[in-house]
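Can you give me the bound-state structure? Components:
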Amino acid sequence: MLENIDMLLVKEIISSVFILAGVAFMLIASIGLLRFPDFYIRMSAITKGATLGVGLILCGMGIYFNQPSMLLKVIAIISFTFITAPVAAHVIGRTAVQNRIPFWHKTNTTELQDYLKHTLLEEKVSPDEAADNNHHTPE
Amino acid sequence: MFHYTLMIAIAALSACLVMTAIRFAIGPTLPDRVTSFDLFVANVIGIIAIYAELTDNANYIDVAIILSLFGFLGSISFAYYLMKTSR
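Here's the bound-state model for the whole set.
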């Protein structure tokens, strides 16, 4: 029974399914980057979509090559991407809020008003206190 | 048949690269361009992975490892630069 199955064909089919799913996620992320109205919505779309897309494409490649060394490298890339992509998105989003990149007009920002007021007050105060506080304030 | 599937995947990822480049060109602010650069690096990692599978050459995966490291460093350093210049 098992001798009749072409294992190379099975590997190719599973790898093709994984790669096409990953490419579909990448395509959705790129269309979202091009079409969404606001910086923050675009950033959320491409962070999730591109992370999952790269993970699925690399999974398909690891299944096709079927060697332990290749699988180890694929797991290294996937774990590194899954750790660093949310960190980078968080840092860029916080920087955008501090630089006052405008929100979309339909975005509900009632829970963010305290933080926005705090950062704006800090920016208004900061030119006066920057001279004497400069050596221990850069966070 | 398998080669056609990989060719279709590379064509779709190239279309993704074109859309990302359009956003990189028309992006109204600098954080837009930084995030589109991030997606650019992810697309190139996917293209390198599919090309390694298409040519049966397992050495290209090292390029993908280095590229994933440097993409993260690039976006973090751009965010740090923006945070420094805003104050």
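A couple of observations. Chain A is about 80% helix and 0% strand. The longest helix of chain A spans residues 68-98.
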